[in-house]
Design a protein that fits this description.
The protein is of the alpha+beta class. It has six helices and two strands, in the order H-H-H-E-E-H-H-H. Strands 1-2 form a two-stranded antiparallel sheet.
């Protein structure tokens, strides 16, 4: 969950409430998530000069390294899985996977929603 949040923050700095909306989690969950990332040294809070109650979340060099490490791991893992596919299967995947990603992002289920349904 923290790695996904890092990827959102790498796109642009966000406030905790903006991150909560993007991740589709409660403000309380986002606050805990942010605090954990701050404690790990992956994110810093920068006070908003126009509103002292707000701060933006900025990814540190350590956070960037962690995101790159996660991306590299996922790439290696997927490459290993895909190595067993035929050229025809790879061609089919090139069409199917972007469509699947679009569906997943459209219908993304949050951890909070899963907890509520249990």
């Amino acid at each position: 969950m923290q790695t996904r949040a890092l990827f959102f923050l790498l796109e642009r700095p966000l406030t905790t409430s903006e991150l909560a909306r993007k991740r589709k989690i409660s403000m309380q969950s986002a606050s805990v998530l942010v605090q954990n990332m701050v404690e790990r040294g992956w994110v810093t809070r920068t006070p908003d000069p126009n509103d002292r109650r707000r701060s933006t979340l900025d990814v540190t060099p350590e956070g960037m390294a962690r995101a790159e490490q996660a991306k590299a791991y996922a790439t290696r893992y997927l490459a290993e899985l895909l190595s067993d596919l035929s050229p025809e299967e790879i061609s089919a995947a090139e069409v199917f996977l972007p469509a699947l990603k679009k569906l997943i992002m459209k219908h993304y289920v949050t951890d909070d929603e899963l907890d509520e349904s249990a």
